[in-house]
Amino acid sequence: MNEKYTVDILTLNSVSIKKESFFTVDGKEYPLGEPHRKAYVNSESGRAELTAEVPEPYLSAVMAVWGEEPTVSDEPNITPV
Asked: CA 33, CA 43: separation in Å to the nearest integer?
């Protein structure tokens, strides 16, 4: 089984990654199931998830755009009443 990743909608604050699985029979690839998409936010926790779930070279490509520091806070945006 082969897995293909697509970096989709990459901004300074987030990225969407599409993962597809394929199997090969007689040199021809066939999709296995539906593509899976997941969005990651450029926060401390989003970076940790991305690092754990997305392989190279896709991880490095996203991090090159995101830079060294997160741009989104993990703290909830709560407005006092």
From this structure: 30
Output the 3-class SS for 33-56.
CCCEEEEEECCHHHHHHHHHHCCC
Cβ atoms of 20 and 7 closer than 8 Å: no
Q: Tokens for 15?
A: 């990225």
CA 63, CA 23: separation in Å to the nearest integer?
Answer: 29
**Which token pair is 70?**
């997160």
pLDDT tens, 14-67? Answer: 999 999 999 999 999 999 999 999 999 999 999 999 999 999 999 999 999 999
Tokens of 38: 């997941």
